[in-house]
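Record 1 of the preview.
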Amino acid sequence: MANIIVVVGAGVSGLTSALLLSKSKANAVTVIAKHMPGDYDVEYASPWAGANFLPMSTRENSRWERRTWPEMKRLAEEVPEAGIHFQTSRIFRREKDMEGESCPTDPMFDRDPWFQTVMPDYRDLSAAEMPTGHDSGCEFRSVCINTAMYLHWLVGQCLRNGVVFKRCIVTHISDAKNQSHEGKEASMVVNATGLGSRKLGGVHDESMTPSRGQIVLVRNELHPMFTTSGTDDGTSEILYTMQRPAGGGTILGGTYDIGNWESVPDPNIALRIMRRIVDMCPEIAGGKGIEGLSVVRHAAGLRPYRTSGVRMEKEKLGDGTWVVHNYGHAGWGYQGSYGCAERVVELVNEIREDNGEDLTDEPKLFSWE
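->
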C-alpha cells in the first residue's frame, strides 16, 4: 500500500522535498500550493531569490548546507538545463562590522570559517586584493542559480517521478490530508509553506517574520560575484552581486530588513544599491556610473525568516495525521534545500518504520553518494 503524502508549498523547499520523497516507489506524492513556479507574488519567496551558495550557518548547524553543496556542484557540472553555473565568490570584511552587533549572516564572515574545507579553491585574499574600505576577505568556487529555470526544472523532475501538482489553498494544515491525487486521505503532510506558516491554521508560528530583500536586476555582466560584511547606509542594507546563468541577468543587492512587509521597491534604496555596486566595481557600468547600468527591473521579496532558526521536525495531529515541518530558511533556502529535504525523508521514514515498514531496499537519495 502506498504512503500517501501531500507536500504543502511549491517553493524550493517543497519541490526539493517532493523530489526526494518521490525517489521511493512506496510514496505517492502530491504537491499543493497557492502559487506555482511561473508565478510572481510577494507571498511566494523562491522566484525572488538571487540565488547563490554562500554558507550562512554556524559550524554546529552546517548540515543542511554541507549536504546540499555536492548536489548543487553535480548539477552545475552535469545538468546544464537545471540553470546552475559556477562562479567565483568573494567575501569582503570590514573590521568595524566584525566588532559590531551580530547579524543573521555573521558566520559567512568568520575569519576561520567551517566551509573552507567544503568549498572548492578556498583561499584568503591578500591586502592588495581588497576593495577600498575593506580589511580582509576570502575567495572560493561557488554557484549561482537562475531561479526561473531551476524551479521549473525541479517540477519536471518531480513529474518524471510521478508527483502530481494541484493549485489549492488550505487554511488549516489538517485540510491538506484530503488533497491527495490518490483520492484517499494522506497519512503524512509536509509543511513547506515558508512565511505562510505564520498564519496557517494548526501551525500559527508567530516566530515567522519577513526579512525583506530589495534588489536591482541588470543586463550588465560582472565576475566574480561578491558580498560584503556591511555598508554605511544602515544595518538593514547590505552589498552583494551575482550573475545568473543562461542570460538571467545580474542581481545587485540589497537589503536584509527583518520585520518589513513592504512589497513595493523603494526608489531611494534602489539608488543606494546601484551606487554602492558602481562605487566598488565601476567596470560593471563601463565607467559611466549608475547611468551605465541597464536595468531590467526593480524587485522586493520577503525571505521567510524564523527567529529560532529553521523548523525541521515531525508532529502528530490530533486526528492521527503526521506533519513533517520544513520551513523558516530565511535567505538560505536554495543552498540548504537538499540537506533539509534529506531530513524530511528521514523523518518520513521514521514514521514508516514505526508503522512496521521494512525500508531495507529504499534507494539512495543522491547520485554522488
